[in-house]
Amino acid sequence: MADRYIEPDTPELRARWGNFAWTEANAAKAKDIIARYPEGRQRSAVMPLLDLAQRQVGAEENTQGWLPIPVMEFVATQLDMPIIRVVEVASFYTMYNIAPIGRFHVQVCGTTPCMLRGSDDIIAACKARGMKAGHITDDGLWSFTEVECMGNCASAPMVQINDDNYEDLTAERLDVVLDALAKGETPKAGTQEPGRHTVEPSGGPTTLTAMVTENHDYRGEW
Amino acid sequence: MPKVTVDGVELEVPAGATVLQACELAGKEIPRFCYHERLSIAGNCRMCLVEVKPGPPKPQASCALPAAEGQEIRTDSEMVKKAREGVMEFLLINHPLDCPICDQGGECDLQDQSVAYGRGGSRYHEHKRAVTEKNMGPLIKTTMTRCIHCTRCVRFSEEIAGVDEIGALYRGESMQITTYLEQAAKHEMSANVIDLCPVGALTSRPYAFEARPWELKKTLGIDVSDAVGANIRIDSRGREVLRVLPRVNDDVNEEWISDKARYMVDGLVKRRLDKPYLRRDGKLVPVSWNEAFQAIATLNPGNSIAAVAGDMLDCETMFAAKKLVGALGSSLLEGRQTGMDYDTSSLAAVNFNTTLSGIETADAILIVGSHVRWEAPLVNARLRKAVKRGAKVFLIGPEWETTFGGEFLGEDLSVIGNLPDHVWETIRDAKRPAIILGGAALGRGGLEAALSVGEQIGIVRELEDGTTWNGFNVLHMAAARMGGLMLGYAQKGGLADVVAAKPKVLLSLGADEVDYTKFAGSMIVYIGHHGDKGAHAADVILPASAYTEKAGTYVNTEGRVQWADKAVFAPGDAREDWTILRALADAFGVSIGFDSFEELRSAMISEVPALGSEGLADYGSDLPAGGGSASGLIAYPVKDFYMTNPIARASATMQQCSAELLHGEEIAETAE
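^ inputs. structure came back:
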C-alpha cells in the first residue's frame, strides 16, 4: 500500500481534533483495556486504544473513522509513550486509517482465488459507483482499496466493508449490498449465495458424505 | 564459555557472545549494516549471513544468533558467498546510483561492502523507489532515497540518546525513517546518527559538499567544548578544519561526541584574532608583534601580575604562563573565571572519581546542581546506561528534562543537608553509591556538605571484589579545569583574591567568562584566539591558537591526561600560545627556562609528573572530611548549550542550532 500517507498536520486539523477526548463510554472502555496489561506494560494497549479512537472519530463524523495526528497524540499521552512510536504503529497496520475515509471502506480482494472467481467484475462495479483508490466519493459514502488475500478464498470473491465481510459476490449481489448500506440498512454479512450457510461446499458435500447427519467411523474402510 | 569452530579453527568464545562476535574473535570479517556493538540487535539487514551447523540448512543472520557449544561456523563457503551477493543485490535494488554526488562517498559501508561482497551487476531493471527528503534540523541532512532501513538511527535515539524522536513509518517497501512530523532532532548528541548511518541517507548538513574523505588530513585531538575530553579526529584540508569526528575510546566518549564538539569548528574561521592589537585612545588598533611587545615592555609590572586561564586551554599554555608569572615573582593564578572559590587542597575531592565508565556501574546516584545534559552530554548517556542497569537517580536543582527519569528533590543547596528519608536510605544502602556535584553546587558550602554526606554513607569503600570504589564525583564544565587545578590555577578565595590584589598586569589566557569590570585598574593582556568578551576588555591583544592549532595536554574531569596533536596552523599572525608567553618573558626581561615546546613539556612533566603519562592521574582516594551546611538556590551556569565558549559563539552552525532548537525560531529554508 504504497499510497498510504499520513494526513498533514494543518492548523485546521488541529482546530478540529486538537481537543479530542474520550466519550464517557469510551473512557470506561479505555480504562478497561489499559487494565488488561501488567503494570509498566501499559504501552501494549496502544493498538486497542488506537482502534477505539478511530471508532470514536468515525462515530463523530459518521464515517468508518480515521486517526488524525492530534488523536494519535492523545493516545500517546494516555499511555505516556513517545508519539513517534504511536505513529509507527498506526502507519504500519493498514486497518488504521491515517487519512480521512468515507462512511464505508470497501476493500476488495484481488488476490488469485478471488480474481479467478471474478473480482475484476467486483472492482468494475465499484468503479462504476465512482470509487477509486485513495478517494472518497462525492456523497461521502465510499472509500475503495484493493487489498490482498483476506482469507475467504472458499467463498471468493469477497469484499470487506468496515467490520463485515461479504462473500460469494457477483457484481449484482455487490450492488444489492452497497444499495442496502447506502440506505442505512444492515445487509446480511458473510456469504451472499442463496442457500449457502457459511463456507460449506456449494451444492452439498462431496467428501465425507456419511458424516453429514451422524458421526461415522471411516477407519474400517481404509 | 562455548567452544565453536570458525572456518575450521576451534576457539572458545565468552558466554553470551553471538556468532558474529565469535567470527570476529576468529579474525573473520563479517559484513554488516544494522548490527552495531553499542546498539541493540535488530537483525534486519541480513548482510551478516553465515553458515552454521547444527541448524537449518540455510544461511543464518550471525548478529542475532547466540554462539553455542559445538557450532561449526563457515564464513567462506559457497553458500555464504551467494547469500551475501543476494542480500547485497536486494539492498541495492532501491539504492540510487548517486555515489558521485553523495557525501558518504569514500567512507560508505554500502560502497565498500558492495565492492567486497556484492556481485558485479544488478538484474533489476524496474523503477527504483524514491522517498521524499525529511527535515531533521540544522545538523542532519537527509537523502532518504538512499536509506536501507538498518534502523541504527532509530535505535540510537531511543537507546543511547534517550529521546524517542526518530522512527520508521509505514511498512515494507514503503518504510520511511523520519522524525515525528519532521521536527528537528532536539538533543545534544543528535549528529551521531550521521556516523552511524552506513549509507548516505543521513549526512552532515554543515559539512555538505565540502570535501571528500581522501582529501582530508586526519589529526588526533581532544575536544575542549566540555570537561569530558572526548577523543576526536580533526579532519582538515589546507589551513581549514572541515569537520570533527569522534574516535573510539571506551573509557571516555565510547564513540559519540556532542553536537557542540562536532559542529563548533566552523567558528574557528570566524571572529578570529589574527594580528596583535593595542588599545590607543580607547580603541583597539592593529599593530605589529614588535610594537605590541615594545608596549608591553614598558609596563614594568614587577610582581604585580596575575594570570587567569580560560576554559579551553591546554596544560602547556597554563604552565608557560605560570612560569612567566612566577619568574616575575607572583603566584596569582586562577582558572575559575566566574569566581568560584571551592577548596582545591585535595584534588580527589574535585575529581570525577568513579571515572566516566565507572559511573555506569553505580546503583544509586545523587546529582547536585548539574544540568548534565548540557554540561556533559556524554556523561548523560552514561547515566542513562546506569539507570538501565537499575540505578536510582536523585537530583537537586531546578528541573530539566532528563533522559533517564530520576527524582528532583528541590532547588536549594540546603537539600543536601536534609535529604528525604527514602533518598537517604537508598544511597545509604546502595552497594555502589555515587554523588555527582556540578558547577552550580560547588560553591556556597556545597562541596563540603556533599563531602560530609559522602563520609556518612562511606562513599569510599572496598567492594566485594576487592577494588576500591570512590563514588564522589565533581563534574566540571571546562576542559582546562582539572589541568589548571593540577598546575595550581586556584587561589584560596577564587577570582576575588586576584581582584583584591589589584594586579598591574592581568594576563588573560583566553578567559572570556571573566567580569572584567572588576579589573578596571589593570592592564589586560589578552592571549587568545577569538574576538569575544575577553578581547573586548583587553588593552593588548596577542593572537594565539585555538585547540586545533596547537599540540597540547588536556586533563578531563575524571583526571585523565590526554594528548592532542596540532591539525592546522593558526590564521594570520597568530602564534602558538607558549611561543607568545616565551616572547613575553623576553619583553619583561625575565627567564622562564625553556626555548622549545619539548623543553616546556619536560619542564612541566618534571614539575607535575602526572601530566607525563596518558591515563588517569592518581589523586588518591582520601577525601577531606567536609562538613558545614550549604544553602542557596541552585542556578545552572549553562544557559544555552550551543553558546558556551567563544568558538561556539562564533560558529554559524551553533548560532543556528541555538536559534532553532532552543529558542524556537522558524526554520530558515535553505536555498538548495
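The first helix of chain B runs from residue 19 to 25. The mean pLDDT of chain B is 93.
thumbs up if we can close this ticket
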